[in-house]
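Notebook entry, structure prediction.
Reason for the run: the old model in the group folder had no record of what sequence produced it. Starting over properly, with the input documented here first.
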Amino acid sequence: MPTALAIPLPTHADRPEEPPARLVLREMWTAPAMHRLTEANLDRLRAFEHWAHAEQTLRSQQAYTRQQLLDWVDGRAVPFAIECGGELVGSVGARIDRWDNTAEIGCWIDAAHEGRGLVLRAMRRMVEHLFDDHLVARVEARTSAHNPRTRLLNERLGMVHEGTLRDASQVGTERHDVAVWSILRPA
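New structure, fully documented this time:
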């Protein structure tokens, strides 16, 4: 599908046979596929994501996509879907704080594509995009401290664990500690 913005991802060094992957802007045409993908991964997402506990409808996905696009136009968000072999398989996004010149990133991926390095390549490219094209000084990730995969991802991104906020996030009926990670734009 044609998109207003697409950023190719590098090929995985150990998996050159994998189909090409890219980040594509989460435009309205992505909403039905992202809704189906969210529904298919809801049990996994609900373990760590507060937003996954809300009712997931196509209408809510369309409203979210519309708001993300408005924020993108205003320079306050970078909403991407991860596309692999022509199929949407995950999400990578950033909220930009222009006052502090920082960004907060987050991601998730379909279970069938987990463990192949796709998220790492997508997040690396997002961090580069934020530093190079949005000129932010700092990128941070706030993740559930109960999620060991995000800890490994943030370490591989070269992020520094700055601390843990105790009981800082409501996830379903539980309170989660939130780990704060960051990386600074190279001088």
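Summary: The beta strands are 6-8, 21-25, 77-84, 87-97, 102-109, 138-144, 160-171, 174-184.
The old model has been moved to the deprecated folder.
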